[in-house]
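Suppose you are handed a protein chain with no further information: no name, no annotation, nothing but its sequence. What can you learn? This example shows the usual starting point.
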Amino acid sequence: MSNRPVHVDYTTELSTRFGYLPTWPPNYPLQIGDVVRVEDGAIGQVDTLASLGVKVEVRRGKPARWEHSSSEGVSIKVKADGKAEAGVAAALDGGVEVTFERRHAIYFRAEEAVVESIEDKSALGAEILERFRAGLWRDTDAVVTEVVRSRSTTVLIAGAAGARAELRGAVDAGAQAGGQATLLMSSHSGLHTHIVAMAQLTPLFRAWGIRRKLFGATAGNVVMRDAADADASWAELGLTAR
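A reasonable first move is to predict its three-dimensional structure. Written in structure tokens, the prediction is:
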């Protein structure tokens, strides 16, 4: 059983799984070009590149499903009248029951998730470094350079061993003409966090900021990494255990 805060377990596990920083709380609205600070594991937006007069081009990928459940911590059982296909994708008819076998076990699902990223991070980095050296940028701030934007995001985190949730499917109007299916939660118990089929979240992101060689900025459970400049450098944020 983990004794760490829930945000530490959640962000560490999903970062290991996907290679992105998980947004905490998961429904916090992040956008490309947000200037953020991280305190006690929570993200706070303090400015935007647009408001600072910095223009960027954004690249967008193609949609895909991103899904994760904690190993040896989550079991998914299709209900009797559900389809035979394993996993939550079978939930449209009979539904599924998700059972969590340990505290802070996670079920995560992002439907039609699209990666959006800043095209030229090197040019952006040169601009931020220039501002930093002119005293116009704080080394505790970072820029959101990439987000995973999902049509529908589900995040379930167990508050204790034995937590459970029952999910059922619903089909949007016009499904016969290609409408979208989504999940609904019909019952639950023992969950710490339950976000079900919430639209247009950005549950995963990447961010870059200033890293100083002698005074590496640390905020919450996020720390600057991959820096090599003797004074300051443009570096990606990464997780550090806490």
